[in-house]
Write a structure and sequence with these properties.
By secondary structure, the chain is α+β, with helices and mostly antiparallel strands. It has one domain: Gcn5-related N-acetyltransferase (GNAT) (Aminopeptidase, 3-Layer(aba) Sandwich), CATH 3.40.630. The protein has 6 helices and 10 strands. The protein has a 10-stranded mixed beta sheet with strand order 1-2-4-5-6-7-10-8-9-3, with helices on both faces. The longest helix is centred in the middle third of the chain and has 16 residues. The protein binds coenzyme A.
Length: 225
């Protein structure tokens, strides 16, 4: 088992380009479809393609996220710098298909609840990408990496209750619904933020989300659900 300190230094080395990792993903016929590539420091500075795409996608899917604000490239870049590259507990993967095109992304937050629990977030697939199942295969490869290489024990996802398309993806990957949680809408400086409220207050909530989870012992990468 990797200690928390080891994982922090592993993530640090990846994000600073000292350690190169890529997670290949395959379809059911074992044909390679693409790879998950971590966002590294040098890419954010030298190549704004990632920032441009992420900004566009965030605008396209603004209402799917718990925090909604005025979306700009500067803000995306600053978020990547401060919340991903400099953070101890996060990593962010772009999804690249075989022709080198970037078609989406997924984020990972480590050490939720305890050192062996991660939360997956920021699932996005480019609206123009018509490849059926690509997110399922990419997500399963990421889950496999977290469970079998990093030895995590449990993964969590929080998703709006009305976002059925995302929930279907998570269920295809093996996640189950744990509970529904009420959300309170808060007005921020330039937008809104939904925060969790006490279970007992669910009827008074502005919106609800579903908490989903998957344990290592229940995951089988080859299982078609
Ligand atoms: C959530 C999101 C990433 C899911 O993408 P997706 O296109 O449904 O996922 P996939 O690439 O796995 O494709 C699934 C589709 O391919 C089909 N499919 C075909 N062959 C498949 C296969 N072998 N394996 C899996 N799915 C397959 C599925 O049935 C599904 O069809 P449908 O679109 O008619 O339901 C996408 O909807 C998105 O970007 N949404 C906006 C952002 C968002 O809501 N993020 C989540 C915030 S919590």
């Amino acid at each position: 088992m990797l200690t928390k300190e080891k994982i922090i230094s592993y993530l640090y080395e990846i994000k600073n380009g000292k350690l190169k990792i890529e997670i290949d993903f395959f379809n059911d016929k074992d044909q390679k479809l693409g790879k998950l590539k971590p966002v590294v420091d040098s890419k954010i500075k030298d190549n704004s393609k990632i920032v441009k795409l992420m900004t566009k996608w965030r605008k396209d899917y603004k209402d799917k996220f718990f925090t909604q604000f005025e979306i700009t490239e500067e803000r995306t870049k600053s978020w990547l710098d401060n919340q991903i590259i400099k953070s101890d507990d996060r990593i962010f993967f772009m999804i690249e298909i075989n022709d080198k095109k970037l078609i989406g992304h997924i984020g990972v937050v480590f050490f939720k609840d305890n050192d062996l629990v991660c939360e997956l977030d920021n699932f996005v697939k480019d609206k123009d990408c018509q490849i059926s199942g690509i997110m399922t295969y990419a997500t399963k490869a990421l889950i496999n990496f977290l469970f079998n290489s990093l030895k995590m024990e449990k993964l969590k996802i929080r998703v709006f209750s009305d976002n059925l398309k995302a929930q279907e993806l998570y269920i295809r990957c093996g996640f189950s619904k744990i509970k529904e949680v009420g959300l309170k809408k808060e007005i921020t400086e330039d937008g809104i933020r939904y925060t969790e409220i006490e279970e007992s207050d669910i009827r008074a909530s502005d919106k609800t989300m579903v908490l989903m989870a998957l344990k290592r012992k229940d995951f089988n990468i080859n299982k078609n659900i």
